[in-house]
C-alpha cells in the first residue's frame, strides 16, 4: 500500500467506524454466533500472493464485525465496561502510525516525556500526593498494559526490595497477601513468581472489605512460623461487589511492618478520585499515606481506549533496582548521566506502546470538568438502577451499591406459597434467571458469587448508556424473572 492508497483506505476505515457507531444501538450486544464460526470461514494459511486491501477491508465488515461483542453498546452492563472515546481512538491511530517502541528516552524522547507528563496530569486529576509525581524526582508514574501487569511489576519490585534489605531470606519463606475478593491478578502474580500467597477472609458484614485485625492476626501467625511477609494487595473497588478494603486499619497495622509493600489496586474505581466528593469513600487520604504503589485503569472507566493501566510508585528506585538490566546495546549517554527516565526499567518488557498520546488527547478534550461529569453521570445512573431494585418486592441488593456497580438477586418472596426459600434454592432460581438473560443478545450482564450467594452484577460505564437503557434493562430483567418464576412453579 502506498501513501495515496493508505489515504483512501484510511478515509474508508474512518467512514466505516462512524457507520458502526451510528448503528451500534440497533446491533445485538452479544453476537449470535457459535464457537468456530470464524475459524470455519478463514483459510487455514496465509495467501501465497498479496491481496487487494479493498477485499480485506470488506472481509473485516463481513466476517469480523458480526462476531464482535459490542462493549460500547449502551446495553453492555457486564464486567466493567470500557468507556472508549473517539479522541482515544485517534490517539492510538497516531501512536501506531509511528510504530515507536520508546523503551529508552533516546529511542524517542517525545514518548518518554509525554508519558511522564501524562502520569503527572493524571496524578493531579486524581488528587494523588506529590510523592507519586514524576516531577518529584523520587516517585513516579508509568503506563502499563493492564492492572495485572501493574500488580506483577509491583510484586517483582517488592520482592527484590525485601530480598536486598533482608539478606539470607530464602525465596520460599516469602509470603504475599490478598483477600478472597482481590482480583485474580494477585494469585496470578504469585503463580508467575512461584511465591506463597495467603488469601485473607473478608466478611459480608464488613461489606467484603479487609479489616486491619484480620491482617494483623495473619502476619503474626506467619511470622511465628518463620515466614517473611513482604507484600499486600489492597483493593478500592473489588470486581465482584465494588468493596473497599479498610486502608486506614490496614495502614496502621503495616506501620509496625515497614518492610511490607502495600499495592493498592483501584483498577476500576480509581477514576472516582477525580471527583472531590468521592475521595473520602475511595480513601484518597489513606492511599496517599500508606500505599507504596497505586494503580488504576483509564481503559475501564476512564474514557481511554484499551490499553492504559496507570501505575504510580513512591520510589522509582524500587522499580529500577528490580528491573534495570542494561547490556551495552541499550546504554545511552543520557541514561549514563542519570538525566532521563528509561521506561524499559519500569515494566517487564523492553519495547512499549506509545499510550500516552491517547491519554493526552482525552484529558485535553474532556478537561478535568468533562472527566468528572462523566464519572458523576455514571454514578447517578447506577443510583437510579439501584433505586429500581430497592423498590421491587422481588429483588434485593446483595451489597450496598458501589459507585457505578449494583449487585442484586431475585428473591421471589410470595411466588411459591408454602415453600421455604433456602439459600440453595435461591441460588438455583437465580442461576436459571441468569441463564435466561445470558441467552439473550440484547443485553449483557455478568454473575458473581458473594459468600456463597449467586448474584448478578450490573455495571454502568459504557459511554452511550442513558436512563432509557436502564429502564429497558430493568423491564427485561423483570420479564426474565417472571418467566423464571413460572418455570420453577411447574
Ligand atoms: N482489578 C480489579 C479490581 C478489576 O476489576 C480488574 C478487572 O476487572 C482488574 C484488576 C484486572 O484488570 P486488567 O485487565 O487491567 O488486568
From TrEMBL:
Keyword Lyase listed: yes
InterPro entries, per the entry: Aromatic_deC, PyrdxlP-dep_de-COase, PyrdxlP-dep_Trfase, PyrdxlP-dep_Trfase_major, PyrdxlP-dep_Trfase_small, Pyridoxal-P_BS
Positions where N6-(pyridoxal phosphate)lysine occurs in the chain: 300
Keyword terms: Decarboxylase, Lyase, Pyridoxal phosphate
SUPFAM superfamilies in the record: PLP-dependent transferases
GO cellular component, one term: cytoplasm
UniProt cofactor(s): pyridoxal 5'-phosphate
Keyword Lyase: yes
PROSITE patterns: DDC_GAD_HDC_YDC (PS00392)
Organism domain of life: Eukaryota
Similarity remark: Belongs to the group II decarboxylase family.
PANTHER family reported in the protein's UniProt record: GROUP II PYRIDOXAL-5-PHOSPHATE DECARBOXYLASE, MIP05841P
Protein name as it appears in the record: Aromatic-L-amino-acid decarboxylase
Amino acid at each position: 500500500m502506498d501513501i495515496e492508497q493508505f489515504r483512501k483506505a484510511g478515509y474508508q476505515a474512518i467512514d466505516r467506524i462512524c457507520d458502526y457507531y451510528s448503528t451500534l444501538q440497533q446491533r445485538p450486544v452479544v453476537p449470535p454466533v457459535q464457537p468456530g464460526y470464524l475459524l470455519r470461514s478463514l483459510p487455514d494459511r496465509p495467501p501465497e500472493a498479496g491481496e487487494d486491501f479493498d477485499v480485506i477491508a470488506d472481509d473485516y465488515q463481513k466476517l469480523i464485525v458480526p462476531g464482535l461483542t459490542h462493549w460500547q453498546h449502551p446495553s453492555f452492563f457486564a464486567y466493567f465496561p470500557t468507556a472508549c472515546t473517539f479522541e482515544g481512538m485517534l490517539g492510538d491511530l497516531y501512536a501506531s502510525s509511528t510504530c515507536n517502541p520508546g523503551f529508552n528516552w533516546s529511542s524517542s524522547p517525545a514518548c518518554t516525556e509525554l508519558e511522564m507528563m501524562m502520569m503527572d496530569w493524571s496524578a493531579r486529576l486524581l488528587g494523588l500526593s506529590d510523592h507519586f509525581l514524576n516531577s518529584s524526582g523520587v516517585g513516579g508514574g508509568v503506563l502499563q498494559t493492564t492492572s495485572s501487569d501493574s500488580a506483577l511489576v509491583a510484586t517483582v519490585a517488592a520482592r527484590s526490595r525485601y530480598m536486598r534489605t533482608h539478606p539470607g531470606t530464602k525465596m520460599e519463606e516469602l509470603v504475599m497477601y490478598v483477600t478472597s475478593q482481590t482480583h485474580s491478578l494477585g494469585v496470578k502474580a504469585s503463580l508467575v513468581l512461584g511465591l506463597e500467597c495467603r488469601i485473607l477472609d473478608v466478611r459480608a458484614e464488613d461489606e467484603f472489605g479487609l479489616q486491619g485485625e484480620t491482617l494483623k492476626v495473619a502476619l503474626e501467625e506467619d511470622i511465628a512460623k518463620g515466614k517473611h511477609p513482604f507484600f499486600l494487595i489492597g483493593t478500592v473497588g473489588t470486581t465482584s461487589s465494588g468493596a473497599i478494603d479498610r486502608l486506614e486499619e490496614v495502614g496502621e497495622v503495616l506501620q509496625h511492618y515497614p518492610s511490607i509493600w502495600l499495592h493498592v489496586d483501584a483498577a476500576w474505581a480509581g477514576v472516582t478520585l477525580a471527583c472531590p466528593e468521592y475521595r473520602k469513600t475511595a480513601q484518597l487520604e489513606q492511599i496517599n499515606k500508606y500505599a507504596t504503589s497505586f494503580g488504576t485503569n483509564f481503559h475501564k472507566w476512564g474514557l481511554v481506549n484499551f490499553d492504559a493501566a496507570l501505575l504510580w510508585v513512591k520510589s522509582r528506585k524500587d522499580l529500577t533496582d528490580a528491573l534495570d538490566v542494561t547490556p551495552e546495546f541499550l546504554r545511552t549517554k543520557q541514561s549514563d548521566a542519570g538525566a532521563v527516565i528509561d521506561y524499559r526499567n519500569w515494566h517487564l518488557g523492553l519495547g512499549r506502546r506509545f499510550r500516552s498520546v491517547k491519554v493526552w488527547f482525552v484529558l485535553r478534550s474532556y478537561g478535568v470538568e468533562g472527566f468528572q461529569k462523566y464519572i458523576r453521570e455514571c454514578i447517578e445512573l447506577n443510583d437510579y438502577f439501584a433505586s429500581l431494585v430497592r423498590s421491587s418486592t422481588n429483588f434485593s441488593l446483595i451489597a450496598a451499591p458501589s459507585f457505578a456497580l449494583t449487585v442484586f438477586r431475585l428473591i421471589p418472596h410470595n411466588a411459591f406459597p408454602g415453600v421455604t426459600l433456602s439459600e440453595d434454592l435461591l441460588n438455583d432460581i437465580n442461576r436459571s434467571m441468569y441463564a435466561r438473560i445470558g441467552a439473550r443478545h440484547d443485553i449483557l450482564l455478568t454473575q458473581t458469587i458473594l459468600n456463597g450467594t449467586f448474584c448478578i452484577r450490573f455495571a454502568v460505564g459504557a459511554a452511550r448508556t442513558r436512563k432509557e437503557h436502564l429502564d429497558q434493562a430493568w423491564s427485561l430483567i423483570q420479564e426474565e424473572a417472571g418467566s423464571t418464576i413460572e418455570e420453577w412453579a411447574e
